[in-house]
Amino acid sequence: MKAVVWHGIGDIRLEDAPDPKIEDTHDAIVRVTSSAICGTDLHFVRGTMPGLREGLILGHEGVGVVEEVGGGVRNLRPGDRVVIPSTVACGVCSYCRAGYHAQCDNANPGGRRAGTVFFGGPEAAGGLDGLQAEYARVPYAHVGPVPLPDTVTDAQAILLSDIYPTAWFGAKLAEIRTGDTVAILGAGPVGQAAIACARLQGAGRIIVVDGVHDRLELARDQHAEVVDFNAEDPVEAILEMTGGIGVDRVIDAVGVDAERPARGPAAEALAEKAEEFDRERDEIAPEQHPDGDTWVPGNAPSLASRWAVQMVAKAGTIGIIGVYPPQVEQYPFGEAFMKNLTLKMGNCHHRHYIPQLVSMVAGGTLDPTPLITRWEGMRDVMEAYRTFDRREEGWTKVVLGESDDRGSGGTSTGAATTAGGRR
Q: Where is the stretch described as Disordered (predicted)?
């Protein structure tokens, strides 16, 4: 089968890979009809998340059709169409039963203390082959894959594999209440999804901070207020917009690959911290293999966390869903402490949220499809990776599939819809 295979930092390839086989009674083999490229995949190529084995198949977002099941899978059969949660969970342990699927006791070969397992990730995260392939082995298939009704298209479902559950989780972590003013740092795929999720959870105002013009326009299409950190200092802008108080809640959807402003007042204010940011980057990504302007690690790893603490009101809450791998050791704890902030963070418990989101999409409460700005075939995946990595215009969310199954929905506006995406 064809698959996207990691060979090293700065080196991924589309190549032939062995077809997966049933290895455990609770396995399923799924024919992947749609996958996607995520910002987390870029961490592996940029060097900001180490520990992958050479030959690993990348990708943790997938929709497909069940081809084969092990004897212990009693709820699925060949022909069922499913969305695959990005993280893997056993469904038996106390964490899974409490809804903390990302902290499953049994999924990680490293043992109970090892933490989250996800497809296409480092050895420390299970080392499972991922979903950017024609077929995939899905462990614990009696728990993970969520069946899809015919009314939910591949385009809708692929965004429920990781992006929307993560955004929903981020809004939950931020403890959004009715009428809250919420800042979302990052207008990439998760940040865009967080606009709809924050609104559905009661946000009164939503302010999105980013430095990429077309991503800010996509956020504005969803009727979020936008702040371009290359044009103004985002902390000062938000304080002015909120009467000097700051926002009630922040969702950090950026993480370790944050970029410092290239120009404007924020760039000037941060100029003296350039060496500090460079040291952070080199500590986090000691091995880097850029190819021109591709596969370049973010040049300000702690910037999103600093801005989040500065722009939130006293006694506010920050929900962190942007990825910070274990080697990240910088955080403005002192300032957060002095403001009585609540910090909540972590990997999304995908399987906990996906059934509800599938129902919301099937019932018309949520249509995520405008978030898809590119639909590419697997033959074009390498160029899609490079273009997405460079944050080029029109490449906010890239879905991989041989047929463009976006259906007819997605252009309406409303409080419960990701609206206005351009195709």
A: 272-299, 400-423
Assess whether 110 and 9 both reside in one domain: yes
What the block records as the tokens of 146 is 């969520």
Apex 50 CA angle, 48 and 56, nearest 5? 120
H or E element at residue 328: none
SS (H, E, C) 145-206: CEECCCCCCHHHHHCCCCHHHHHHHHHHHCCCCCCCEEEEECCCHHHHHHHHHHHHCCCCEE
In the numeric block, which tokens belong to residue 288?
A: 């880097």
Tens of pLDDT, residue by residue over 243-259, are: 999 999 999 999 999 99
303, containing H or E segment: helix 303-311
Element (H, E) at 274: helix 274-284
Q: What rounded mean pLDDT belongs to the chain?
A: 94
| Exposed/middle/buried for residue 142 (C-beta within 10 Å: 0-12, 13-18, 19+) | buried
Tell me the pairing of strands 342-345 and 312-320: parallel
Cβ of 421: how many Cβ atoms within 10 Å?
20
pLDDT in tens, 203-212: 999 999 999 9
| Whether residue 224 is found in the same domain as residue 340 | yes
The amino acid at 90: C
Facing residues of 82 across strands? 64, 147
Q: How far apart are CA 304 and CA 179, in angstroms?
A: 24
